[in-house]
Amino acid sequence: MTLSNKKIIQEVIDCSSSKENACDVVNWLSSTIEGHQTLSDMIDHDAYVIEDYMLDNNPIDPTQSAELLEKIDTQIRNNRFRLLTLRIAAVFLPLIIILGFGIYVNNHFNIIGKTTYTEINIPNGEKAHIIFQDGSEAILNSSSKIVFPKKFGITKREIQLEGEAYFKIDKNKHRPFIVKTDKADIKVLGTSFNVSAYKEDEFINVTLDEGIIVFNTPNNKHQLSPGQQLIFNKDRNESFMRFLKKPENSSLWMSDKLFFDDTPLRQAIKILERKFDVKFEIKDNKAVDYSFTIITDERDIDDVLKELEMIAPIRFDLQNDIYEITLS
């Protein structure tokens, strides 16, 4: 039997399938990405139907309501007791079936029960690729942490991020995807974007490739369009937006490329520490006056430092597993 067969799934919902098929369908819905998406689509379909009905049908006015009630009352009095019983059963039996199916599904999807979360920590020098239950994806950069529920809720999909990640979110207007950071939230309906939100950094950077996102701070709300980058100063609670000629540069880290865009030395060495799992120590404070603009795919830290030494008059000397920074 093919579990993705819509006819079989509908038979289970209608309570007309065999017990074996019912068990197979529920297992498929609860344990596979395709099953999760199918259940999500069913919920969305019901939401659309209810929404369209509310838009297309006018509420009954009091006069119509009274006339309808009188007709129903007359019909009930004229029918025999058996017919009345059948009609009552016809009203309540579908509700019982739906309730039973809801309890059955909840036992497998934990819609009503307590939510359990998964936490993933990425060490320095590593990356990770995560696929959520709805098919959305996240690629995590070094020294990042993500916390997400094992099963998303019916009305929203919410995760917590500390660090940097690139997201590809499946579109679903009834279940927005929300990325929570320590100082701001990002609301997404369906899009691709990069977020850098390390807790120790002064800024949160968000770069949008496709779709639309809304960046929410305690005091403001900003909507981004493709090609825009938002820079949020966490200490000052200030935001700055700009258009980028090449927004894809913000996510070059996914292909192991290093990208600096007029990046100050202090921020540059933080990125290098995360990427290569090394340590730096600034021995000459005058070195912090320099910044770097470079794109390189060098995989060795010493080769990268040689390129930086060609840009600014500074030196990186390895002493006792720490790179000391001085002026050359």
CATH topology category name of the largest domain: Jelly Rolls
As a percent range, the share of strand residues is: 25-35%
The top-level CATH class of the largest domain is Mainly Beta
Number of domains: 3
How many angstroms separate the termini?
Answer: 72 Å
* Number of helical stretches of at least 4 residues: 7
Q: Give the tally of β-strands.
A: 18
Q: Order of helices and strands, N to C?
A: HHHHHEEEEEEEEEEEEEEHEEHEE
Helical/strand content category: alpha+beta
In percent, how helical is the residue content?
25-40%
**Uncertain regions: pLDDT < 50 for 5+ in a row?**
80-93
Largest sheet: 13 strands, mixed
| Dominant shape | elongated
CATH architecture of the largest domain: Sandwich
Rounded mean pLDDT score: 81
Rg over CA atoms: 28 Å
What does this molecule look like?
- The chain is of the alpha+beta class.
- The protein has three domains: 6-109, no CATH class; 117-249, Sandwich (Jelly Rolls); 256-327, Phage tail protein beta-alpha-beta fold.
- It has seven helices and 18 strands.
- The protein has helices at 6-13, 19-31, 33-56, 62-78, 81-109, 265-276, 301-311; strands spanning 117-122, 128-131, 137-140, 144-149, 157-168, 177-180, 185-188, 192-197, 203-210, 213-216, 221-224, 228-233, 238-243, 258-264, 280-282, 291-296, 314-319, 322-327.
- The radius of gyration is 28 Å and the shape is elongated.
